[in-house]
Amino acid sequence: MRLATVWLDGLWDRNPGLIQLLGLCPLLAVSNTVDNAIGLGFATLFVLVISNASISLIRHLVDEAIRLPAFVLVIATLTTSAELLIQAFDYPLYQSLGIFLPLIVTNCLILGRAEALARREPLLVSTMDGLAQGLGFFLVLVSLGAIREWASDTIILAALPPGAFIALGMLIALHQAIQKILKRFRSKPQPNTQYRRVRTTGDIP
């Protein structure tokens, strides 16, 4: 798998928040402020990158019968590590995120990438996939947080759960609109700039 494809899928073509619609529970619940969004985004990115790399390294050592429990154990260990780090260095953020920090274990994005890619690909590709998918999720999460925090000063709905759905719908609509423009541009026929050489015979008057 080409690394360019991995990055393009994670950040744009198969963005986990806008296209795959994975991890919607924390995406919508924690995006009421930018600080919360950044905190959960980094925690998810940390778990996703290291879990992908770890699972890629042990993929030949884990028996097929216990594959999923082993993957969940790796993800749970990393989630607990991320939770303890945030608790130690930013306790107010830890309190603000609450139950959504340990719930990273159940984020279908992380287990999905482990099952779909990390257990089949080498270390570099798996790590880059975790980084690309994590950054894609992080950017959507922070964008939602910024929109909702800015709009909540004038629109109370933005701070409420329905406001999260509306803001996410706007981001998805913007993504689809840009995709249509890019698709139209790519499919536009390019002018033929090549010139054919024509052989002539006889004298030119």
Structural descriptors:
mainly alpha, 68% helix, flat, 205 residues, single chain, 8 helices
Helix content: 55-70%
Mean pLDDT: 89
Number of helices, where a helix is a run of at least 4 consecutive DSSP H or I residues: 8
Strand content: under 5%
Topology as H/E string? HHHHHHHH
Intertermini distance: 61 Å
Radius of gyration from CA coordinates: 23 Å
Q: What summary fits the major beta sheet? A: none
Unreliable spans are: none
Given the helix and strand composition, which structural class is it? mainly alpha
Shape: flat
How many strands in all? 0
Total of domains: 1
Topology:
Blueprint: H1 3-13, H2 24-29, H3 34-58, H4 67-89, H5 91-97, H6 108-118, H7 123-151, H8 161-187
Helix pairs in contact: 1-7, 3-4, 3-6, 3-7, 4-5, 4-6, 6-7, 7-8
Describe this structure in words.
With 205 residues, the protein is mainly α. It has one domain. The protein contains eight helices and no strands. Helix 1 packs parallel to helix 7, helix 3 packs antiparallel against helix 4 and helix 7 crosses helix 8. It is flat. The protein starts with a helix and ends in an 18-residue tail after the last helix. The model has no long low-confidence stretch (mean pLDDT 89).
